[in-house]
Amino acid sequence: MLKSNIAVGLDIGTTKVCVVVAEKDELGKLNVLGKGRSNSDGLQRATVVNINKTVDAIKAAVADAERESSIRITGVNVGISGAHVHCIHSNSEISINQTGIVNESDVRRFLEKAKTNIRYLDIDHEIIHVIPQEFIVDDQEGLLDPIGMAGTTMRGSAYIVVGLRTKIRNIKQCVEKAGLEISAVTFEPVASGMAVMKEREKKSGVVVIDIGGGTTEVAIYIDGAIRYSEVIKVAGNDVTHDLAHGVKALYEVAEELKIKHGCAYSRFSGEDEAILIEGIEGRPQKTFPKSSVTMIIEARMMEIFELVRDSIKRSGYYEYINAGAIITGGGSLLPGTEELAHDVLGLDIRIGYPEGVSGGIKGSVNNPMYATVMGLVAHAFQNNLAENPGVPLSAGENKPDIPVEVSEGPAVPESNPVGKKIGDRMKKFWDNL
Questions:
Q1: Pairing of strands 349-351, 30-39
Q2: Sign of the torsion angle spanned by Cα atoms 59, 8, 1, 30
Q3: N or C: which terminal CB in the chain sees fewer CB atoms within 10 Å?
Q4: CATH number, domain with residue 205
Q5: Domain check: are 179 and 202 in the same one?
Q6: Residues 208 and 168 in one domain
Q7: Is the distance from CB of 218 to CB of 232 less than 8 angstroms?
Q8: pLDDT tens digits for 389-427?
Q9: What is the bridge-based pairing of β-strands 357-360 and 30-39?
């Protein structure tokens, strides 16, 4: 029997690949049916550098999620990020249809015109999203949902997310070579924000900071809509590399050291002690002061937040962020991160955990490192992409391996921007913006 209320998110990160299978309950909460996670070293700073390794990591994470959920995964909402992704503000104006009442068709024409108003989109880039920011119907300003409003002219602005065509294509190739269909491509800061923000924060003004392995993503929401985003090429892996260099240890040893003994802020590191560090390739063990480990971590984490602060100031929205900042992603888990961010950014801080999850295996995804993938699931439901992404697995059935090819393969069609499938889901779309 086909399941029509299942959505699957696929987060292909620099250090890990995460997959979540979820359904929506009668209260609109996400019921997690299964999740999968695998280590990934096929990407650098959110950009594919090894197709085969990335495909293998996707397959491994999908296999875990299928075993846990008993659902054969076919369609996924895949996240995309990287410094190649940037955003453009575009203004648009249209005449309202002859009835004088704004309908879904008017909104679609508004968004299409916003796309055509981009003057400097070259052939190397493609559109990922067209996200409405504000509508003005005649003299009625500040509308997030114009449907049903009476007027003759509708104008406003949209936030258009674009990325390099080749890098988007590489992500798509990896997903398809893993035997999956792509239901949608979603800019990861949008997904992370959807997972961790509360509605009052979104309206008051908030910045979402997702510290991943290869990149740190910044997204600013003002008056209920995204206004600015940026991807910074410094993140958690840089902390680990600094630590490996500082203590003269293998990367894997430094990562374990960071997780077990790491602290982002020396003010909260506690008493000093000698930490035992494994030697490299048979060399003897050695000790290293915990205070020195903290100083190494603190220096890089401070740099990350200084870059974030510069990004926020550059946006012009710093003074409008009344609700402060939400820090999420695996890099938010270090003790002292919240306090360091507060002192550097000058904003109220909280750590962002996935919201709107109930039942199922809720506890297994109650972690900031699952914020993006849970946001991808939520975004799939919001945009009615959860029709038939999976079917139940038969007893003992295993998904066949998909042969991996190194060739470039055929060109992949451009992803659907937000607003393409308007229809009956439009009201839900506006309610969730």
A1: unpaired
A2: positive
A3: N
A4: 3.30.420.40
A5: no
A6: no
A7: yes
A8: 445 554 344 443 333 332 233 333 333 333 333 334 333
A9: parallel
Q: DSSP labels for 357-395? A: EEEETGGGG-SGGGHHHHHHHHHHHHTT--SSSEEEPPT
> Helix, strand, coil shares of the chain as percentages rounded to 5?
35, 30, 35
- Domain with 106, as residue range(s), is 86-163
Q: Find the angle CA(108)-CA(112)-CA(113) to the nearest 5 degrees.
A: 120
**pLDDT per residue over 252-302, tens digit each?**
999 999 999 999 999 988 788 999 888 778 788 888 999 999 999 999 999
- Distance between CA atoms of 40 and 56, rounded to whole angstroms? 9
**Mean pLDDT, the chain, integer:** 86
Q: Indicate if the pLDDT at residue 174 is higher than 50.
A: yes
- Pick the closest to residue 260 from 288, 299, 302 (CA basis): 288
b/e for 263-278, b at 16 or more Cβ within 10 A? bbbeeebeeeeebebe
Q: Locate all alpha helices (DSSP H) within 140-198, ordered by sequence.
A: 165-177, 188-196
Report phi then psi at 163, rounded to 5: -145, 165
DSSP string across 21-63: EEEE-TTS-EEEEEEEEEE--SEETTEES-HHHHHHHHHHHHH
Q: Hey, what's the torsion of the CAs at 151, 117, 193, 53, to 10 degrees?
A: 150
Joined together, the tokens standing for residue 327 give 């820090």
234 and 342 both lie in a single domain: yes
